[in-house]
Amino acid sequence: MSVSNLLANWSQFRQAHPTEGDFHKEYKWAMAIDLDACTGCNACSVACYAENNIPVVGKDRYARGHAMHWMRVERYWDEDNRDMPDQGAQFLPMMCQQCEAAPCETVCPAGATNHTPDGLNSQIYNRCVGSRYCSANCPFKVRYFNWWDFPKEENVFADPLPLQLNPDVTVRTKGVMEKCTFCVQRLTVAKHNARNEGRLVQEGEVQTACQQSCPTNAISFGNMVDPESRVGKQWKAQQVDLAADKQVKDAGDESHEVGEHHSGTQLRGYRIFEELRAYPSVMYLERVRESAV
Amino acid sequence: MAKDIREDISWAQINSDVLKSLESPRPMYWVIIAIALAMFSLFVGGEIYQYRNGMWVSGQNNPHVWGLYIATFIFWIGMSHSGTLLSAILHLMHADWRKPIYRFAEAMTTFSLMTAGLFVMVHLGRLWQFYYSVPYPNERGLWPNFQSPLLWDAMAIFTYLSSSVIFLFIGMIPDLAICRDHLHPGWRKKLYTVLALGWEGTDRQWRNFRVTYLTVACYLIPLAVSVHSIVASDFAMSQQPGWHVTSFPPYFVAGALYSGCAAIITLFIILRYVFRFEEYMTLPILKKTARLTFAIAMVWTYLNAIEFASVWYSHDQASKDVLIQKATGPYAFAWWGMIICGSVVPLALAFKKVQTNIPMLFSVSLLLNMGMWLERWMIVSPTFSHGYYPWTWDHDQFPSFLQWGMVFGSFGWFTLLFMIFCKVFPSISMYEVKEMVYHRSLASKMGGKGGH
């Protein structure tokens, strides 16, 4: 604890860019979600609840906007006049995008949310004071605040739910922010196992809960540094670049409007809100069905 | 034009008039104290309830993670600015009409900053970990995030608060000595004896005093500007539509001076009545304050128009949508209320009859402050209900009773502190009023020359 310590840390912090140096040396966790394969079945969301000890808040609290769904499946419609309310819905699974230049990280006063060398946006529950600035500045609004003292609330983990709580994941107390971690507990175990054997984590060795439960294989997850990884190949095939704020798919498009890009190519890969330059680690593959815009 | 102050008023008279305010205010004083106490207990009760139950009782949710607490926090920070305007800026500009009223304005600065600080705490999800966001030395070498505007905020507010307390105290030293010399023995006499720092009114003391006072005044002005610019950075540094506006820092500073001036008029009228200060807080001074408020109101209106225009011409659709939503959506009543109270009502201050009409000024000043409070609410909330991400658009959010109660109660806390201050310390600067009377009597003897 000294001023020189502070200055050294500060200078290191100021000069490090998340895509350079020690970052992404061995691992860069990333995801690709094929919206054409997504059927909106919500299995990913359920798996996420089970894996990460997420409190099930119930109908009333959901209506109040207190739901904690780290992985949520959103529904959108092209047209308003349809015969049945759910007809023609398009689905978008949305979770923390693990941005490389995350808007949430810079604004946290306590430094509770940080970038890890393997490209995750981490959240330290013990360090969080609950200013909620990270959520205020998140363009995707994928951060969830513990408005209630959930572990102690009735019916959140009603019997026999406590028996299925995942011992590798803490339950969060009231007043802290939480969000999707890319199942960091699984990544850590896989990394430790690999390190003990003197190697890197192989493709297919680790899966996120949502990926594992997806019946149509719409979600792929893996290490982008590994040239053999499925996710790395997908990103490459779609010519999506982690450090670019406009992808080849939108090259001919001069629109500067947020979320208003229209492709002139056969490529399908895009990231949400590229224009905001948060550099998300999740690539979505556009729908190719006729009804798709 | 009527005189700011009578020139034949004797120095002993000034002492006795002001000292009387420490002893026997009108009964209205105790009524105000009682109401303020009741309001403050509401605040304390609300906070205890929220602390025990978690933040859900405030009615905030995802995506509305900030609400009235942050809006009211900005409001109180803003109100603190005019104390510095009157005491430091007008001091440097030799506007001597400020002399009878700057002391209470300076006190207003201090106490509204303390109220604002309260809202930061109330807003936090884990109040008991508040110190995590402050750069305190600890053995783990854990620092807060120096990139975060909230951290700048914490530093700016603590600096401004401590500096204004020092400034308030320094300016009061000669008056504290007068209190020490005139009051009966008791706890107050002991207090004044300690605080007066052995003031005897020697030439050397006066010379040092002047230099110190001027230095602190010069130091305080950039602080005052920076503190609200930094509060503006909480929004301008973020990425959200409606917040990411370059002109926010000057806009916030103008808004701050504006609401502060309006609050000065309100408190001016209350103090004038409660402590029988009609002789010192005169109508011509009130008139000057009203004109100052009018000028600042117009600056604020102009900056407001600039903000709307720049959003419109930027073709940033997301920001534009937020603006349209403010004017036509569920917040329209508050947004138009802000425009009417903030830009139309102050036009009344242009009329000379209003400038010296106490009931009119009182109601206008309250309306102006309501408008400025609405402005802060309109900065914070609409962005949450209509941000970038369509899935989170939720226009129905309305703050819960608890949030409204806490906002209401905070006025009790402020009034309580302020009224207790005015009863314990001289709320009119005796020595400066004497100077003012002396200079003006000199000037009138010299036939109107040489005075200010």
Automatic annotation (TrEMBL), chain A:
Entries under InterPro entries matching the protein: 4Fe4S_Fe-S-bd (IPR017896), ET_IronSulfur_Cluster-Binding (IPR050954)
| Keyword Iron belongs to the record | yes
CDD domains from the entry? PsrB
Task: Drop me one GO molecular function for this one.
Answer: metal ion binding
Q: Which PROSITE patterns would you find in this protein's record?
A: 4FE4S_FER_2
List residues of the 4Fe-4S ferredoxin-type domain. Answer: 29-59, 87-118
| Key words of the record | 4Fe-4S, Iron, Iron-sulfur, Metal-binding
What span is annotated as the signal peptide, if there is one? Answer: none
**Gene3D superfamilies in the record, alphabetically?**
3.30.70.20
Q: Which domain of life is it from?
A: Bacteria
Name it.
Menaquinone reductase, iron-sulfur cluster-binding subunit
From TrEMBL, chain B:
| Key words, A-Z | Cell membrane, Membrane, Transmembrane, Transmembrane helix
InterPro entries, per the entry: NrfD-like
Transmembrane stretches, start-end? 28-46, 66-90, 111-131, 151-173, 211-231, 251-271, 292-313, 333-351, 358-380, 400-421
**What does the record say about its membrane topology?**
Multi-pass membrane protein
Q: Where does this one sit in the cell?
A: Cell membrane
Cellular component, GO, one term: plasma membrane
Family (UniProt): Belongs to the NrfD family.
> What protein name does the entry list?
Polysulfide reductase NrfD
Organism annotation: Ferriphaselus amnicola
Q: What is the lineage of its organism?
A: Bacteria, Pseudomonadati, Pseudomonadota, Betaproteobacteria, Nitrosomonadales
